[in-house]
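for the writeup, i need someone to sanity check this before i put it in the appendix. the sequnce is what the collaborator sent (i think, or maybe the updated version? ugh). structure was predicted straight from it, no edits. if anything looks off just tell me and ill rerun, i have time this weekend
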Amino acid sequence: MSQEKNEEQHIKRMADMLRQGATLTELACPACASPIFRLRSGGLWCAKCEKKVIIVKEGEDPSKITGSIVLENLEATLLAKIQEIQNKMEHEQNMEELQKLGTVLSGLLENLEKIRKTKRA
């Protein structure tokens, strides 16, 4: 894809974000220097990198923030997998397959509980 086409897509994504209620901040992305947007949820987003941006204040431990992001991402992945298993279980007729799915679901739920306990600690 050409540089010009990439730039057009970047501008379109930024315009879409504004239409969706995001606001432009005075901050620039540390990776690409593109403007950073504040989403309606309060999070920061780079439209060019298409990634969440985390601001680490002076004196804060970056590893603590990074660890929190990893746990959030892992929790979201587990929830998506739990949903997938639930969908499969709804349509499955074979009892052996249901038992296998139940075992997988149990493991996913245990891991989800561990992650949530870790986040609270």
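The chain has three helices and four strands. The CA atoms of residues 1 and 104 lie 41 Å apart.
thx in advance!!
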